[in-house]
Amino acid sequence: MFNYVMRRLLFGALTVVGVSIVVFVLMRILPGDPLVAIFGPEGFTKLTDQERAHYMAELGLSHPLWYQYLSWLDDIAHGNLGRSFFRSESVAEMILRRGPLTAQIAFLSVVLSWLVGIPIAILSALRPNTLADHLARLMSILFLAVPGFWLGMLIVLTLLFTFGYRAPLTGASIFTDPWTTLQMVIGPAIVLGLGQAAYIARMARSSLLEVVREDYVRTARAKGLNNRLVIAFHALPNALLPVITLSGVLLGFVLAGSIPVERAFGTPGLGYAMFTAVSERDVFVMQNLVFLYAVVFVLLNILVDIIIAWLDPRIRLR
Amino acid sequence: MTITTPDVGLTPSPPRLGPIAPPPSAWRRGAHAVSSFARRSPMSVVWGLIALAMVSMAIAAPVLAPYDPLKSNFRAMTKPPSAAHAFGTDQIGRDTLSRVIWGSRTSLTVAFFAVLLGTTVGALWGLACGFFGGRFDIASQRAIEFMQSFPDLVLAMAIAMALGAGTGTVIVAIAITRIPFGGRVIRSVALSLKELPFVEAARGLGASNLRLMFRHILPQCVAPFLILATTHLGVAIIIEASLGFLGVGIPPPTPTWGNMLSDALNSGLVPPWWLVLFPGLAITITVLAFNLLGDGIRDLLDPRLRGAV
Fold first, then answer.
1. Residue B89 in 3-state DSSP?
2. For B144-166, what is each residue's pLDDT tens digit?
3. Full-model pTM
4. Do A253 and B234 touch (CB under 8 A)?
5. What DSSP assignment string belongs to B248-300?
6. Which range, A99-113, A230-244, B284-298, is most confident?
7. Residues of chain B with C-beta less than 8 angstroms from the C-beta of A260
8. What are phi and psi of B60, to 5 degrees?
9. What is the ipTM of this complex?
């Protein structure tokens, strides 16, 4: 197990280095001067050559690319992620302030997706080709097609017009004011959770259908065990392994999906910060946020692999 | 003595002797395939027709749209749906119905070319990986892993932002996120095919690597390619809409479903419901149609791939 974990972590570190190069290259081939983004096209033309050189040097953009890349890595290692062009808050502060909200949304959405997806899957796997099965499948197909941010906009509008209710847009942390936080988080979590539930239900259904045909399940039934007990305690735990893997992958996609969804709800999380950065073409914020998303994505995949290896000896002993 | 290179099927086979039934024409065969498809899964025909309707709407946008999608009418600003404007008008008096119709043109064009480009590049890459193996394959798998270390939308956002706004850049951005999928699937197909006797036979007859790849293995990849492409159309449409919604897609005033939703939200705190409902409905119906059509095509071409792609 230890060997397995170390190997996964090593590969993960390698991937993170590769990812940092991809992000750096992407953010440096931006056409157009970052100074134009800061000062606007008009302000930019008013700057003298000397001032331009001065600002470029101040932003650290006058060094050769390899130097810029290494100093960026150095900054990350020291937790210094630079500043936005437009706001006084540093990127690290922004991540610490906004990150928890997005993390809560992601966590809650995973919980919701299991609460919705697994019962649907059990229902449709135990009674294939009945009305319940067809309804469950229709639902999972529908959730795949509805864009989350649109659903979010519809929810906001409906609540507003029927109940005159709008979720609070600013709030304290979950520790000081959990009720406000929950109201801010629940909308995006429901939207993102339903989207994942569709995948979870599909995967759990086919996995359960496979496991139910295995010999040990038949043996359990032959012993005279109640069918419900067989499903709940014999079949389900094994059927859930691929679902856990999928859920981890989906969690990464939820972090990305929460960018437009947070915009739709106006939730001031990390996704909203990403939207602001991309629309203001705030290169440094974007560079660090994209890197952060990728690192979290890689870590989640490693974590899922480790959990699966812990649950399934066949994998860790390979 | 001269060594003649063996002929591996370049020249047409000699005419057969005796009367035989003429092979059915391409039309016949096509019609037969469609009718058997229809019998086996009637629902996917319905969804196929809806998808076809969406595509025709995109092609015939100039004829179908009742108004100019870019022209504002200051006498009818932010008006709810009425007889004159079936889907209402936006903040500067542009007809929403016309914009939704023209939006289908942009959204479908982007999705179609992005998927075609991304899946083709991925497929050729995967073909080479599976065929050659070795170091090239290992390096390629690492590169694909780096690409898959980003969630689709984040990668597409970063690329679209890096390349600047425009139709071409959005197509490239979405296409790049599709490459790993084509790469993986076609690689595994090529890996299993290259060991088969017919490839060995062709190699024994002296066929070059290129000929083996393109003449013998590539044709077997067509079915998985088609399945991949249709199943990814829906995803591509959603990514395009999300990019538009986040302001890194095709810039206004060109109408796309995504930037229409974004405009609705930019107008003020409470967007009028008709500006939200109709573009989103268009996305949902189109994606639903392409997804279910893709499922049908997958079941028709290769039932073994059910759930794999």
1. strand
2. 888 888 888 888 988 888 887 78
3. 0.84
4. no
5. -SSPTTS--HHHHHHHHHHT-SS--HHHHHHHHHHHHHHHHHHHHHHHHHHHH
6. A99-113
7. 153, 242, 245-246
8. -95, 20
9. 0.84
